[in-house]
Amino acid sequence: MKYLLNAFIGLCFLLFQQTVLAQDSTQQLTLSDAIARAEANNKAIQLAGIDEQIAQSNYKQTSAIFLPQVGVSYTAMSTNNPLNAFGFKLQQKTITQADFNPDLLNHPSGTPDFSTQLSVQQPLVNLDMLYMRKGAEKQTELYQFKTKRTKEYIAFEVQKAYLQLQLAYDAVKVLQEAQQTAHAMYQLTQNYFNQGLVQKSDLLNAQVHENMVTTQLANAKSNIKNASDYLSFLMGAPTGTTYTIDKVVFDNTLSGDSITKVPEARADFMAMQKAIEASNLMIKSSKMSYLPKLNAFGNYQLNDKSMFGFGANAYLAGVQLSWNLFNGNRTKNTIVTQTLERNKLQQQLSQQKEQSQLELNKTYRDLHDAGYQITQQQSAIQQASEALRILQNRYEQGLVKTTDVLMAETQLAQQKLGLAQAQFNYQTTQAYLQFLTQTSNNTKY
């Protein structure tokens, strides 16, 4: 029994260890693979696809304006009402001379009727429904553009998250170098302290500096896991995987043919335009409801006094022209409301284009500023590196204080982190610029 218990505990520990290893797995991931996986599995894209399917289903429902409606019914009735009782017998074609007896006509006994009926209604001319169908078709196009814009946004989010992960790796690299430098500085200071060349405060400052860099390094490693988890979320994958990435290099020069105006064919603009077109068609549909409608109808009926009898048969067929002349101004007020809603959509589209143009102008300026910041940070790193080299040489000769060297080390690490941040800003701004100017003809990831 004890042996089985130990075996069970060992098995549970092994499974737990495998689960932990699976949760902490490392996986190589390229940007193109990340975007492809997000497009296939992202929940927001899947929801947009469902909305598109709903619009398609609503459009298919409008096929009813061309197709007949067919129904079958079976009705069992019994009555002693003089008029209905005589009518039942007429429908059953069972009238005899005796049925015209006035006493029997006025006081019939319970008369049963079992009726089976096949009814058909065929729309012929319904112009209001025809324009309503066209409006539903525009709705399907609207949601197709919405799905496309959702995919573009998720692709942008994946690029940004991927670059965030790259920034985290760059920060870890910088801080690892800073940690090595800080540790070497601490050892050198400790040797000087043992020789009585520096005070204990210098040694403590060097130790604090090393601990501070170590803490920053631990935070940067946590940021790698955080960025990896967010990428997993965007790709619709379980969290817990740490991704290793390929270095993303963007062109750091502005192209001469840069788009300076927001394109009219952007997916979200096109979706709004389709909404306006659908509103126009619904207004036409409401106006067409003033016109008469032409529809055909027919039924075939079997009647019998027995439950499972189908003795008498009859048919009825016809064409109906109907015209609703006045419905209390409901149609008129509906058209007014629809027109106002259409005008609101037009104003929203105009406002959206203006806001996007402002955003595009700002993004170009941000891109220029980010490029300038990269240049400045590269220059600052060279200057900070040279300053640290000079101070380290002077420190070894006992000409400068320990705090001076520590400040120089901190400054160099900050400038390197600043360069990584500036490169991240430039790359994400480029990705956002692409998102702002994306159309159906220039989708690139």
Describe the structure.
- With 445 residues, this protein is α+β, with helices and mostly antiparallel strands.
- The chain has 10 helices and 6 strands; from the N terminus they run αβααβααβααβαββαα.
- The protein has a 4-stranded antiparallel sheet with strand order 2-3-5-6. A two-stranded parallel sheet has the order 1-4.
- Helix 3 packs antiparallel against helix 6, helix 6 packs antiparallel against helix 8 and helix 8 runs antiparallel to helix 9.
- It is elongated and about 140 Å long.
- The chain starts with a helix and ends in a 9-residue tail after the last helix.
- The N terminus is likely disordered.
Instruction: Trace the largest sheet across and list its strands.
Output: 2-3-5-6
Q: If helices are DSSP runs of H or I spanning 4 or more residues, what is the number of helices?
A: 10
Q: Summarize model confidence as the mean pLDDT.
A: 86
Q: Please state the structural category.
A: alpha+beta
Q: Report the uncertain regions.
A: 1-23
Strand content: 5-15%
H/E element sequence = HEHHEHHEHHEHEEHH
The beta-strand count equals 6
What is the oligomer described by this structure?
Answer: single chain
What's the end-to-end separation, in Å? 61 Å
Largest sheet: 4 strands, antiparallel
